[in-house]
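Regression test attached.
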Amino acid sequence: MSQLKNFSKGFIKENPVFVLLLGMCPTLGVTSSAINGLGMGLATTFVLLMSNMVVSMVKSAIPDKVRIPAFIVIIATFVTIVQLTMQAYLPSLFKSLGLFIPLIVVNCLVLGRAEAFASKNNLVSSVIDGLGMGLGFTFALVTLGGIREILGSGKIFNITIYPENYVTLVFVLSPGAFIVLGYLIAALNKIKKN
Amino acid sequence: MNYLVIVIGAILVNNIVLMQFLGICPFLGVSKKVSTGIGMTGAVAFVMILATIVTYLIQHYVLEKFGLGFLQTIAFILIIASLVQMVEIILKKVSPPLYQALGIFLPLITTNCAILGVAILTVQNEFNLLEGVIFSTSHAIGFGLALILFAGIREHLDLQDVPKGLKGTPIALIAAGILAMAFMGFSGLV
């Protein structure tokens, strides 16, 4: 498999959110606006990239029986780095993402890639896989966040598109997350079939 | 009175699955049948309450005492992972029938964000131990309520004539959205 294909598979064909249905909690929880989706996506991308890199480097040193706890510790380390850095430099984003930053640890996407890809492949492929999957995840979060923000508050990236009197508030509240994601997956299925 | 607010808030108003989006993976993954939903709820409730107690003690008597607050995420996830493993081993020995019923769900629970989420929320809200136990118990009930209601809806959805593109996950997500809308009706209670 060429590296380009390895990189681009995360966007549509094996998109972690739309196709693999991994990492649903942050996907639904933080996408009330496009900017939150972008922040969460990039934070996850960083963790995914670094954990894939480290896992592929130390894979031969970890006994098979304790590999899952070992992977979790590696992931938790990078999550803590993200958590502390974001708290220091981006306090407002940190506050709006809230609980979901420490919860990157239990994002099935990160552990899933470490287990299914990085522990079997070499350093370069693992880094590319982590970057591709992470950006695919970011793409999905920004799309979902953007649609919800336009429908629910009439804005995109905080730029007003239409007046607030015409918004459908439910789309930025929790039911909107489920419904928009449901229709997005249905639309994608339709596109893929044609 | 304070305890009642915690209970109603956790079960209905801030329902862990439908309002806070924690534990979506099992919510979508094991909700095809009501019976598996009940099994999953039992396993989650068991681990969630135990994990909250243990993480609370570690947070207050180890991490805070020695100024290691930044290790919270790493410490908590390790506690939960080992707790799940321990519960699995003990159950296998002590109560084989219970192990049979909950066994297959236990490994899935380590990566269930509801457990870690409730443990962190208990610390963030500065609850004492009793409040923490009530908080986690009500969250577990809320999780069970949402999961079992949703499993019931999905059992009926299987028999309906759903448009082709919406079959499977999309229609389940939309049904979950409508269920969440119903839960929004509780938002004035507390």
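Expected vs. actual: identical. Chain A touches chain B at residues 21, 24-26, 28-29, 68-69, 72-73, 76-77, 79-80, 83-84, 99, 102-103, 105-108, 111, 170, 173-179, 181-183, 185-187, 189-190 (CB under 8 Å).
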